[in-house]
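During the reporting period the student researcher (J.K.) took over the structure-prediction task from the postdoctoral fellow and processed the backlog of single-chain submissions. One of the processed entries is reproduced below for the supervisory committee.
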Amino acid sequence: MSTDRTRPAGRRDQSGPRSVPPQRSRRLQPHRPQRPHQWFAERLLAVLSGQRPVHWMLGHTIGEAYDQLAELAPTTPLRATRGSRPVLRHCRGAQPATGVVEAFASIAAGDRVRAMAFRLEQGPDQRWRCAAVELGGERLTAGAPGPR
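J.K. obtained the following structure tokens:
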């Protein structure tokens, strides 16, 4: 048995433990909850790409927005292309008035990039709801097919 306490038994080299620089500890940033427009962008993408059923948005829309989504969802205007699942690339929002957020997002699927804009309104119960949606400059209206 070796009397050198710094060297494991069976080790033959004469070097001792090397000084290892201390690792920089990453400061863990507290988890920030998603902003309403980011959360809605993910949900709208899931519905308009066919990943989720339209009734998933039932309590999260107001006015004609749900009816528009119900007619558009079967056409899946943001469906996968060439096997690439669509993903949310960027999402930004602006607050033109209290209780209103107008947001835009870019969605990528393979080599295609699409734009989506939507409006959120905050109700008296402080919940955000989607009031309007547009894709690629064309307003999503009931009865009109989405862009292909």
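The committee noted the following: The chain has a mean pLDDT of 81.
J.K. will present the remaining backlog at the next meeting.
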